[in-house]
Amino acid sequence: MYDAALVRAGVCAMLADRNLALEVKSCPWLLVEMAFTIVDKSRRTVPFFFNEVQQDFIKHLVQHRSKNKPFFVLKGRQQGFTSLITALQLAYAISMRNFAGFTIADSGDNTLAIFNDKGRMVYERLCDELKPTERFNSRNELFFDKLNSSWRIATASEQVGRSRTLNFVHFSEVAFYEVPLSSLQKGIGEALVPGAIVIYETTANGYNEAKDLWDGGKCINLFYEWWKTSEYRSSRVEVLNNISDAWLAERIEVLKALGLDENQLAWYVEKYDSYLDKNTIKQEYPMTPDEAFVSSGTCAFDKDKVVNQIQRVSSKNYVQKTGYFKYKKDVISVSESVITDIEWVDDVTGFIKIHEEPYIEYDEEGNEVRRMPYALGGDTAGLGEDFYAAKVISNIDGRTVATMHVQRTDDDLYADQIYCLGKYYHDAIIGVEINYSTAPTRELEKLRYPRLYKREIMDTSLGKTVTVHKAGFETTSRTRPVIIAEIVQQFRENPQIECDLTTLHEFLTFCKNPKGRYEAIEGKHDDLVMAKAIAHFVGRQGDRDWLYSKRITHDFFDNFNINQNREGEINLWDF
């Protein structure tokens, strides 16, 4: 039991010191740890001291509030954010004049629970010196007439929040609202005063409007992994010894690599074992934001492997440099152009990411021995907001070594960068999609690029595939399932083939539509998925083994070791 008398003495001392009182008034969160109490998970009334994730959020609130952007808190279960944000609104309401705070809950039950357990009961346990005069204390609102301040809670509905002026809005479990978030934002947006605090807080619930808000760049996104909550630990470390579930075993290895200790891992195993639906843990206690927003629909790629790979890639920088190519281009005729003086330009805002430089192996004397062969797949911008994309892969093991992604450019400029990228990677075999535009491929032909993919068709009379001497990759009802199946299988067998985060995010939203066709879900893109798939497919027309250099040496003699001097003999090649 906390010492109520000690808390009251501290409050009285603060109120008696004008400077302290002004400091608390300007930073109301100080009042929470000074005077608030909370019922913990053991149903004990204890002082409200911030845990690790709550402390981190307060730090971000202090640092970033001046940016006038909403906060989006994505978290695991029971990390204490609803309690914290409710306590913050109460602290503002009892210390500031004309304050209006508002919480929007996802359901009627949660509306009552938040108001009673995290609001009214916390307020009633405050010492009398902190309680302003109440005009009324209803079932969903606390109103203090002396300060003309209030905190109110309501269930999400089309009309909620209208005709009000608000200083602080908390969207609680926003991913679970049964009304469109966009409709709520319209009403609430008109009610917010300049500089108002807006917090979206939730566990994830699929790829819905909350996910769009997270991805939209309009909020300060804060993701809190479950292991940042220190109480999620177990002493039963013996459960780690006999893990038979393949998914859990792989997940434990990933968590180990992140530095989690045995007690944290044991807690996770116990939590996993307690669920009948094992997928629940990915949403309730996610490892990454992508895992938290579990994709609705059937994803083409193994979601668990994608999420694990995202975690691996996020913990290490897989981009060696970012930029674009500068070059000189001369038009010789309507059918021929020449690019020379190719130079790489470093630019952090550039649209080409080099994940791995072109590989060349040298011998001990510095002579080139062999080069890695590469393949490049390109996906041209189609309708709407699509991107021009390209992926360069090692044509031996399929690893991505470069990624190009640009939304607005011209077909010829796209082709020029593709040309430079292909030359950079040892004259990589290039195949660019021609469905929406043949212009980039025609431009590569005008540039006399040496290695362009030639389309293949099935000759029914011969019963075999034959090459059509026309450049460019055509995505059809026959070729599309083939290239997708190939890249899905290769990623399943070796997730290390993809190291670009943007591409991995596209993997997660590449799902089966109602007609059974795999494509990006509404509002998302699949340009990089298709470019990657095309690169793997067109690579079959390129070199699939190392490119060995032709050494200007006497290989015949080297092979037979007859260039070794015998006593008294002179080798002719010594002259």
Structure write-up:
This protein has 19 helices and 24 strands. Residues 551-575 have low confidence and may be disordered. By secondary structure, the chain is of the alpha/beta class. 36% of the residues are buried. α5 (81-93) packs across α6, α13 (303-314) runs antiparallel to α17 and α14 crosses α15. The strands form 6 sheets. Strands 5-6-7-4-8-9-3-10 form an 8-stranded mixed sheet. The chain has a 7-stranded mixed sheet with strand order 12-11-13-18-17-16-19. A 3-stranded antiparallel sheet has the order 14-15-24, with no helix packed on it.
Average pLDDT level: 88
Sheet with the most strands, sense and barrel status:
8 strands, mixed
Describe the global form: elongated
Indicate the proportion of strand residues. Answer: 15-25%
What's the tally of helices?
19
Total beta strands: 24
Contiguous low-pLDDT stretches (5 residues minimum) are: 551-575
**Radius of gyration based on Cα positions:** 31 Å
Largest sheet: spatial strand order: 5-6-7-4-8-9-3-10
**Fraction of residues in helices?**
25-40%
What does this entry show, briefly?
With 575 residues, the chain is α/β, with parallel strands linked by helices.
Features:
7-stranded mixed beta sheet, about 35% helix, about 575 residues, alpha/beta, 8-stranded mixed beta sheet
List the helices and strands and how they pair.
Blueprint: H1 4-16, H2 18-26, H3 29-35, E1 37-39, E2 45-47, H4 52-64, E3 71-75, H5 81-93, E4 100-105, H6 108-124, E5 134-137, E6 141-144, E7 149-155, E8 166-172, H7 181-191, E9 192-202, H8 209-215, E10 220-224, H9 246-257, H10 262-274, H11 280-284, H12 289-292, H13 303-314, E11 321-333, E12 336-346, E13 352-354, E14 360-362, E15 368-371, E16 374-379, E17 388-394, E18 400-406, H14 411-424, E19 429-432, H15 439-446, E20 454-459, E21 464-471, H16 479-493, H17 501-508, E22 510-512, E23 518-520, H18 527-538, E24 547-548, H19 555-560
Parallel strand pairs: 3-9, 3-10, 4-7, 4-8, 8-9, 16-19
Antiparallel strand pairs: 1-2, 5-6, 6-7, 11-12, 11-13, 13-18, 14-15, 15-24, 16-17, 17-18, 20-21, 22-23
Helix pairs in contact: 5-6, 13-17, 14-15, 16-18
